[in-house]
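Q: Convert this sequence to structure tokens.
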Amino acid sequence: MSQSANTRLHPIAALRAMRNLMRDREDTKQAFLLIEALRGKTTLHQLARFRRSKAGQAMLAERPSLLARLSDRASLAALPSGSLGRAYYEFMASEDLSAEGLVELSKVQRPLSGDEMIWFRERNREMHDLLHVTAGYGRDPLGEACVLAFSFAQTGQKGFAVIATVAAFRIAKRLRSLRVPRAVFQAYRQGKRAEWLIGADWENLLSQPLDAVRARFKITPPTCYPRILPDLRRIIAAAGQAAQPAAL
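A:
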């Protein structure tokens, strides 16, 4: 398959996935299909930037498995309180999630690509829940929308922007609050101001204090999201719903 075929946008497939997603917010695979349809050349550009950095060059030479590191729950649980890895472990345990679970949800048909690209894309996938912890967002619907807006700012992937925008307005309609789009836009600005997390050496960052990681990458805590969360939780509880995954 040629590179041009690999990097084409597929708006019809994206629209189909978006419609399916709106019918069933829990069908997370549709979110991955939508992101894939609108990926274009963004990952190629991100990988090229990764190759230019010293840290990226070192990681490409070794190709460590971030999934293996994040799946080692005993090792993460043994890290000091307040470290990024311990906070990640506690976050995943509280939400009854696993790094392997995201792998299963993301299994969609993709264009052919080289081993280096596959490793890079898989690494970006494993980062998702680390961004929840580092940026300061929960796994509730609004928290997911905010992380996707943050990720769009970092990567330029249009699928993230589409899902975050649609989710923002759906939640705003439910809560009857204009503060919801503001929270999502603040997450986008947060991602714009932050250093490039795609190139982060997450394996070594896990043992460092979470506050130090945030300071190093210029990640400021959100202010809009925490104010809305209590109202959102009340609505979810009243409707008898559990916190939703990335698809809204």
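The chain has one domain: 3-238.
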